[in-house]
């Protein structure tokens, strides 16, 4: 069982008791001796409605109108706590979580202090910032102003995840899991594209990051100046930077071999006047995983290693650049 329980009375003494003796109180020190035993026994043996009726009757017997049906519910929940149950304790701006280690009993109250019934606990996590770690659904539950409230299985799962995040110092507003999900979904989207669409998307990405001239060379046009295996799928000129990026694109679902690298290495001579005066950089973009160690990739003639962008990396680059997906990318004719 998970219970949210507020320390709403004798605050200083109650907090001290919890900290120093690992005892969580609820009050009701007016119920002593046989009356306390009666309430404890009833909580163990009775259903909630039966407990409520007897609690009100006890109030009539001792002429105390503080023993109401509504307040009986709070005491009943508290006295039903058992070893292994967990209690979430709201505090100002923070939460504590503890685990019950024994059965509730009537505390031997100091004079003038209402400790009442207590339950032994051990602290699991303390000082959990509400702002940093409490998600919206649990925050709504914490708005409940009564002494305590049963928490359901969904709340239990939420609390357990919250404790892990608190331990790892990962706040609820951390965007990392959401970003990872977005990247994964975009990567799966890339795998659905055909080769031409994949190249067109890469071309559009180049334009989005500042390319002022792009081209997807025809598959039927081969340069007479380059080796027969030389090939690039996308060219992107950034004239203000005096560079051109040559891309070899592979839409693979498993491993990618070194063929794309060899095609880029063989592309040494540019015949198009739009690109020939620019310093070349070469990218190998694959949705698969490159089968070689990227540190072992040979250098091109300019002494620059080919940049390998593999697996989900290109999807991540699309996310980080704020790339806007739309059908116009593929509808140019």
From TrEMBL:
Gene Ontology biological process terms from the UniProt entry: DNA restriction-modification system
MF term (GO), any: endonuclease activity
Residue span(s) of domain Restriction endonuclease type IV Mrr: 191-318
A Pfam match: Mrr_cat
Protein known as: Restriction endonuclease type IV Mrr domain-containing protein
Record organism: Salinicoccus roseus
